[in-house]
């Protein structure tokens, strides 16, 4: 059969990498072939599946294993490779020495560019998935791989050493084994208890590339090993560097684990939510671009008229403003903008920041964008100072601009390291361009209303944050929200906006209300952008 379709086979890598999983099944969908296909899809590949063993299992454990005849395995492998060019192959549960021999014989003829071997021996539940007498065959099989992804127990079997007690020991074992075999190792510390979970790519020449993430306190870890290996194979198969592939796979898996429990699948070690990222990005895609609030009337004669404006769906209970409005106009702005204040409090970025599950890369991207934002926000405030009437207002906006630049410098000094984004992303850019253009080019009341949400909604977020433990990964950053000077500055901004509204014409007030609501929306987008970047790209 192998020679019947040669014309169809092309060695050119397709835009969507074609990835074959060779693994056992999990009818509950969290591990094995099911996890592999979901992970390959999530990582941007076309998934294919050859089944080594049928496993009756769920989130509690394995009940029975049925291994079809080896000839049938070989028939499956050939059916795929006679017809399809493979950009990457990932192996998981092989189960028996006979299965390993059959896959090895097939690989002798079809060595793929990328072979990721997850040397599955024992499931998360503690059940054996590899017969004890097949361990040596698995160790030999690993020599064929581009990269192996053992957990620390499997690494000990590969190296014939005792199980590593800490990351340094695991790295040392991997370094020795990789140097001997010429096969790269991803050293996983999921089974250790450190606060950080590091996946390190160990190259045969001893070069280490660590990819860090935070440890999640969850039991939703069924199939994490399968998922990481399948996503890694896919990213390598599309031509990513090892560092980019591992960074993407680790970041995506982190999000998938963080949202696994919400699936409510099973009562044991639950699966991860492989498609959380895809659903979140789809929702973000649908929400952007957005329409400027068009329900504000052309002219506003009274605060009551403004308070009656509804732009989105308001929360059932009115939201209490932590820094109170300075009068009826700012009270009405608050009322009209509540729908978006509620969305900010609930948004995935703030939730993940508060519960500590936010990925490092997202946090650092957010900080870098925040520093860029402050530099431009200061220009908008300075423009208001330049256009102010009266010394008190001029001093207030000028001091706010200076304070903002000090905060920007502090962000760089204390928080931002090397190698961070130095260019505004499109979300930051849209917000700052809007602020600067409004503060310079529109009636002063419109500019003042546009800069208000940054004061008011930030103070609101600060006031509503829960206390977090010191070991919380973002404790120090969350602490900066509580600065009392910021509340005073917000009170000042509210007083000025209130006065500007009192003195403005009805049409300028309407424009100012639209600017306030638009800026609220920019605040939401600004937080959310931290989750929209693709880690590793
Ligand atoms: N509690 C956790 N918090 C954050 N990430 C985790 C956690 N547990 C696992 N991971 C991620 O999942 C990856 C694989 O996990 P682990 O080291 O447990 O592999 P495994 O034992 O091969 O998995 P499996 O249980 O599916 O066989 C880790 O390298 C890490 O990226
Ligand atoms: C089929 C299969 N492969 C791997 C694992 C490891 O989680 C599992 N539970 N089931």
TrEMBL record:
Q: Which GO terms describe its cellular component?
A: cytosol
Q: Which reaction does it catalyse?
A: 4-amino-2-methyl-5-(phosphooxymethyl)pyrimidine + ATP = 4-amino-2-methyl-5-(diphosphooxymethyl)pyrimidine + ADP; 4-amino-5-hydroxymethyl-2-methylpyrimidine + ATP = 4-amino-2-methyl-5-(phosphooxymethyl)pyrimidine + ADP + H(+)
A GO MF annotation of the entry reads: ATP binding
What are the residue boundaries of the Pyridoxamine kinase/Phosphomethylpyrimidine kinase domain, all occurrences included? 26-273
Tell me which positions the record assigns to the signal sequence: none
**Keyword line:** ATP-binding, Kinase, Nucleotide-binding, Thiamine biosynthesis, Transferase
This protein's pathway reads: Cofactor biosynthesis; thiamine diphosphate biosynthesis; 4-amino-2-methyl-5-diphosphomethylpyrimidine from 5-amino-1-(5-phospho-D-ribosyl)imidazole: step 3/3
Q: Which SUPFAM superfamilies match?
A: Heme oxygenase-like (SSF48613), Ribokinase-like (SSF53613)
What Pfam families does the entry give? Answer: Phos_pyr_kin, TENA_THI-4
Q: What does this protein do?
A: Catalyzes the phosphorylation of hydroxymethylpyrimidine phosphate (HMP-P) to HMP-PP, and of HMP to HMP-P.
Q: What is this protein called?
A: Hydroxymethylpyrimidine/phosphomethylpyrimidine kinase
């Amino acid at each position: 059969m192998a020679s019947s379709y040669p014309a169809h086979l092309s060695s050119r890598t397709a835009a969507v990498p074609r990835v074959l999983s060779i693994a056992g099944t999990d009818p509950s969908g969290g591990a094995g072939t099911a996890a592999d296909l979901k992970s390959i899809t999530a990582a941007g590949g076309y998934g294919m599946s050859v089944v080594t063993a049928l496993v009756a299992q769920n989130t509690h454990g394995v009940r029975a294993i049925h291994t079809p005849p080896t000839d049938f395995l070989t028939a499956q492998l050939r059916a795929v490779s006679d017809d399809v060019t493979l950009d990457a192959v990932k192996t998981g549960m092989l189960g028996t020495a006979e299965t390993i021999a059959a896959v090895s014989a097939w690989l002798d003829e079809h060595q793929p560019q990328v072979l990721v071997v997850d040397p599955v021996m024992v499931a998360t539940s503690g059940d054996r998935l590899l017969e004890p007498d097949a361990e040596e065959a698995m160790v030999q099989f690993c020599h064929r791989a581009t990269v192996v992804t053992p957990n620390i127990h499997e690494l000990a079997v590969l190296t014939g050493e005792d199980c590593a007690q800490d990351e340094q020991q695991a790295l040392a074992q991997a370094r020795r084994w990789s140097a001997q075999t010429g096969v790269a190792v991803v050293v996983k510390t999921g089974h250790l208890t450190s606060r950080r979970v590091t996946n390190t790519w160990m190259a045969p020449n001893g070069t280490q590339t660590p990819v860090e993430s935070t440890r999640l306190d969850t039991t939703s870890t069924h199939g994490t090993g399968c998922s990481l290996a399948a996503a890694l194979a896919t990213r390598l198969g599309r031509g990513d560097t090892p560092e980019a592939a591992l960074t993407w796979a680790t970041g995506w898996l982190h999000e998938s684990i963080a949202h696994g429990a919400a699936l409510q699948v099973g009562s044991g070690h639950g699966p991860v939510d492989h498609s959380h990222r895809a659903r979140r990005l789809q929702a973000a895609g649908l929400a952007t671009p957005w329409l400027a609030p068009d329900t504000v009337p052309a002219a506003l004669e009274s605060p009551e008229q403004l308070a009656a404006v509804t732009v989105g769906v308001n929360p059932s209970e009115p939201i209490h403003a932590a820094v109170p409005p300075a009068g009826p106009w700012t009270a009405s702005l608050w009322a009209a903008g509540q729908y978006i204040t509620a969305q900010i409090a609930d948004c995935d970025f703030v939730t993940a920041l508060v519960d500590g599950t936010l990925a490092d890369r997202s946090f650092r991207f957010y900080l870098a964008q925040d520093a860029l934002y402050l530099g431009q926000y200061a220009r908008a405030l300075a423009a208001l100072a330049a256009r102010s009437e009266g010394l008190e207002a001029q001093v207030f906006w000028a001091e706010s601009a200076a304070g903002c630049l000090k905060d920007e410098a502090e962000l760089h000094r204390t928080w931002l390291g090397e190698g961070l984004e130095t260019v505004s992303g499109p979300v930051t850019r849209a917000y700052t361009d809007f602020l600067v253009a409004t503060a310079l080019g529109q009636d002063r009341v419109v500019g003042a209303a546009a800069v208000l949400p940054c004061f008011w909604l930030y103070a609101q977020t600060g006031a509503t944050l829960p206390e977090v433990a010191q070991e919380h990964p973002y404790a120090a950053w969350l602490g900066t929200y509580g600065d009392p000077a910021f509340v005073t500055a917000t009170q000042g901004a509210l007083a000025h906006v209130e006065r500007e509204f009192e003195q403005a014409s009805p049409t300028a007030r309407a424009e100012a209300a639209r600017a306030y609501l638009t800026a609220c929306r920019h605040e939401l987008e600004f937080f959310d952008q931290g989750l929209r970047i693709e880690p590793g790209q």
